[in-house]
Structure formats: C-alpha cells, structure tokens
From TrEMBL:
Organism: Hoeflea prorocentri
Keyword Phosphoprotein attached: no
Record's keyword terms, sorted: Iron, Iron-sulfur, Metal-binding
Transmembrane segments: none
Family as reported in the entry's similarity comment: Belongs to the prokaryotic molybdopterin-containing oxidoreductase family.
InterPro entries assigned: Asp_de-COase-like_dom_sf, MoPterin_dinucl-bd_dom, Mopterin_OxRdtase, Mopterin_OxRdtase_4Fe-4S_dom, Prok_Mopterin_Oxidored, YoaE_C
Protein's name in the database: Molybdopterin oxidoreductase family protein
Molecular function in Gene Ontology: iron-sulfur cluster binding; metal ion binding; molybdopterin cofactor binding; oxidoreductase activity
Family annotation (Pfam families): Molybdop_Fe4S4, Molybdopterin, Molydop_binding
Domain 4Fe-4S Mo/W bis-MGD-type: 7-65
Database matches in PROSITE patterns: 4FE4S_MOW_BIS_MGD
Domain of life: Bacteria
Amino acid sequence: MSKEAQARTGYSACPHDCPSTCALEVELLDGNRVGRLRGASDNSYTAGVICAKVARYAERVHHPGRVLQPLLRKGTRGDGNWQDLSWDDALDHIAERFLTAERKWGSQTVWPYYYAGTMGLIQRDSIHKLRHAKKYSGQFDSICTNAAWSGFYFGAGTLAGPDPREMAKSDCVVIWGTNAVSTQVNVMTHAVRARKERGARIVVIDIYDNPTMAQADMKLILKPGTDGALACAVMHVLFRDGFADRAYLDRYSDDPVGLEVHLQSRGPEWAAQITGLAAEEIEAFAHLVGETKRSYFRLGYGFTRQRNGTVNMHAASCIATVTGAWQYEGGGAFHSNASVFGFDHSRIMGLSLRDPDVRHLDQSKIGRVLKGDEEALGGGPPVTAMLIQNTNPANVAPEQRKVIEGLMREDLFTVVHEQFMTETAELADVVLPATVFLEHDDVYRGGGHQHIMLGPKLIEPPEGPRPNLFVVNELAKRLGVTDPGMFEADALSLVDDLLQRSGHGDLEALRANKWIDCQPDFETSHFIKGFAWPDGKFRLRLSWHDAHAPNRPPRMMGPQGPYEQLPEFPDHCDLIENADAEHPFRLATSPARNFLNSTFAETQTSRKREGRPELMIGKADAERCGVSNGDLVTIGNPRGSVRLHARIVDGVKPGVLVSEGLWPNKAFVDGEGINVLTGADSIAPFGGAAFHDNHVWLRL
C-alpha cells in the first residue's frame, strides 16, 4: 500500500504571525513525517484556503538545516565554531551564567526577549512566567501591533467589529493598507465571494501595485504615510454631498459637528497634493462608499507602520461612522478581533508573580538597549544576559547595525532557542533546538477572525528539539524560583486551565469540536447598542495624552514619540520622515508573498520564487536616475546604506521605493539587510516601529 493511501489527517492551526490563523488539515504520512497541509474546509473563515508557503510546510518541518542539538559557542562570536552539548549540560550552563549576571548587576540585567515566531498562547507566552518569577526585565511589545491597535481602539473603544465573514455579504469591500493576497489570504476568499455572489466592488488602497491590487475594481495608489489625508478628504465629500448619515452620527458619535467644521478645508484638492492621488479618484471613492451602505472597511497593519500610523488608522476607521455603515450586515470597519476572546492568561504568564516596579525595555529599541543607551535602559543596569525565543532581531529589528553591534558584545551572554540557525542564533553563546508547531501542543486564537483553535502535537520531533515550555520550566528549576509549582504543568493542562478560566469550556470539548466560534451577536459586533466607551459614542475627537489603548506603555515609560503634536480630529499628521534634498525618496519595506517576516526564508521554494533582494523603482524615477532593470544600486540615509538590484515597475508614485522581504541579511550583496535603514524612534502616542517610513538617497 502506498504512503498516500496510508496517510491520515490531523487537525491543527497555523502558528504564524498572520491574522488569518488558518484552520489546517495535515496529511500525516507516519509518526514523524507530514505531507501536504490544506485549509480546513469546514472552518467558516479558513474555508479550505491557505497560503502556498504553509501548504508546503513539510519542506520546513523536514528541512536538513534544522538545529537538532544544543550548541555552545567556541571561539570568536559569529564564526560558526560550535561544540555539541547535552540538554542537561546546556541548561546547567545557562542557569549558571544567568545567576552570575544577576549577582553582579541585579536581576534586571537579564532580558527574556520574544515575539511572534509562534502565536501559540502556551509556547509563546510562557516566557513571561520565568520573567516575572525572577524579576527579569520586562518587554514592551512595540514592534508590530501598537500603532494599529491604538488607532482603532481610540475610535471604537475595543478591538472588535463586524464578523469578518460578513465581507462575503458586503456590496463594497475596502482593503486598506494590507497586501492580503500575500499576507492574509482569507480576506480575499470572502471579498471575492462577495463580488461573485453580490456583484460587490473591491477597493484596494496601498502604496504600490501589488498582488492584491490585481484583484481590485478600484485601485488607489498613494504616497506612504498619507492615508489620514485621504480619509479626511473622503469624509469631506461625504458631508458636502449629503452622504453623511447625520442621524447615526448624532446618536453614535461624540462630535460630528466639530468634525464637519474641521474637514471643510480638507477636500479632495487638498488631499491630492499630499497623497499623489487625483482629486477625481478621491471623489469617486467617496461617492462609492457613500452610495454603498454595506461597505466593509478591512483595515490592515501596513499603513500604520509610519510615524503617523496611529492617526492614519483612526482616520480610516472614522469613515464607516460618517456613513453609518456599522448599522448594516456586511458594513462597518474591522481591524482585529483581539478583544472578543476574554482570555485569562494569568497562569500561563505567571501574572501573580509580576512586580510593577521592574523596568520594561522597548523591544523595537533592542539595538539602543544593547548599545547601552541610558534612555533606552530606563536608568537601570546594562543588559548582560538574554533568552531569545520566537524572534530573530538581528534581521527583523530596526536600526540593524546597532542590534548586531550589541549582540556582538563579549560581555553579553545570549541564549537563542530556535528551529534554524538564524542570523541571531549565529551570534549566540548557546543555541537550543526548538520544535515546530506540529511537534508540540498549543492553542491559538484568530486576530482576523473569531475562532479559538487547538493545535495538538501531531508528529514526533527529531531527537534534539524541545518546546519553549520545556525550556522555561527546566530553567526555572535551575534558577531557584520560589514557586516551583508554577512551572510543573504541561501544555495541555495549561490549555485546559486557560479555557476554563476564560469561560470557553474545556480541553475535551475543544478537542472534539476543533475550534470555538467566539463572534458576538450582530448587535454587539455592529455596536447597535453603542460603542465600547462608557457613553456609547465613537470617538471622532481625541484627547491623546489620556487615551486608553490595548497595549499602552507601562506608567514608568510614559507616552511615546511626539504625542504633543497629534491632532484633535482626523488629519494628515506630518510626522513622517519626509523626503528632502539629501534624501529624495521614501522607502517602504513591505512583506514578500513567500516569506513571513524572516520565517520561510530558509526554505528552497520560497527563496527560489522570490529570487533575490530587489528595489522597486518607478519608470520615471529610474529614467531620471539613469537606472536600468537589474542594476546594482545603493540606497542610504544617516543610519547606513544597503546595495541591492533595481526592478523597474509601474504602479508606484514618483519618489517612492519599495523593497519586499524580509530577506536574510546575508542575501544582500554586502551582508547587511534592509533594516539597516529603518529607525527605532517611537510612533506617537503609545509606541510602534515605523518600518515603512524611511527617507533615502539612491546612487548607482
């Protein structure tokens, strides 16, 4: 009998940092090998569709380059000279070095550093349990969601909204600031269904002509960081031409009169000068959403990764309030469903052990932290020991040169728990082999949808890799934690505890059903009884300094960025890194279709399909600069410079450059990656990293 005939099907969820969090059917060939992965057809959001890179996940699971043995650095940092260790010896050595660092500098000299290489709530978040038990430095999670989450929350008072499956019931789907074909494919599943079944129009708003634009009925290609201006001009037209739902605004918003007065000077001609769009394009878009009550605004992350990104998100979300689109099935604005799950993470994260006086360090400013910047260190001791899980800061963090210089310090002891020898792992003192998601137990929640999903262990790992929870628990035993019982539960026990604490049943029910649908009813999802503020009003007018947010910086850190310059009403907030005489171009570092941050860059198929690091440049700019297709060009700014090959394209505004990635640093001609050019200064008012907001010069 063939292997295909013998194959069984297992059920899991994609663990990667994508709002789709797809429900998966996994072809199990034997006890430790998988075949093809498919989207679960009976999950109403995934609907049988997943991205190609996850469908071929077997290439990653069974990759010959996986780390399979604990390794100890021998010789010069980064030269690739390693000694094999047993797990016990490796963990003993780590504990000894952490304790030595603590004795010299205090517990806050140790910084557990993590992020979203897995989105599993157990394997990702258990690192905090060790952090709190030992009073190690905290981490302010700023690198991904903060600007987007804050901007949406400021308006609606929650991270929730109309059922994402309602895109299929819409008459107009506006995909704003996300290349969904490449980064969250299920958005397209439901949008295209609306077009097929209802004749819905699909509008795509972005900074370049990407694969999602190819699906659009209306394309709006604007300059980076100008989304707030577009939103204001659209709302100007809605008020001017009678499309504003004044009865809805009077009942459900805080200051519609003030907004209308504010917008009188912010019409299409004003926005055209800022965005690079034609005034006629803005008018047409405004009339489309004004005339189409069932307009669903699907708001992404990409357009918030600007220094004015929080303002841009809030402005875009206001349009659905002006039109009253929230009232209708298939209408409203949606960014994330993070607020609907109501999880009690206290046992997973050891929150009972948390000390509010322990400093927090900004994950986006890791370069500054490791270089000893006193402001970044919060007045505390230097970081001299790190445990890094689920992230690759040498590649993905801003101010890359500072990050790498910091990781190269000889007085820094770094442990990296990884699946592959990433560029961060190459600079570590100890590398520990990690399991992939099919080799351990976990539980997941959607960001772009409403399901809680079980991710059970489906195959046995190779001999060496161990899950994150194992590392955390074993280190705790060796580090003398005062509450060892906190570190004894296995992953499935923690899943069961999480579900029961949070009112979602128990593990056995989830195992039987595969997922739990947490979408609130229509009235709640569409805020029919009012938005999530005490007065039930959507906030059009903001007081930024005392605003609430899902991930507001700890009190000791305070507001971030130039928050005092933020506008009271939606506006174009000119805090971006504008082009100037020395830096005439604006650069965005957008995601590539076959990578996910730095993940999948190690697999042959993904690398082959992406080709090489390239710089997209418009035809007019290329001609003006004397650049031909394939030329090796240099782009730079005060942070550094990078060489890569030019690709001449249509569909970008003059003065805009795009480099899709995230490619490993070593894939570039000079061994330095694109994040050499990105800054770590905070997005106002509550932090975030402005990856798509860089001015640069270009030279042949």
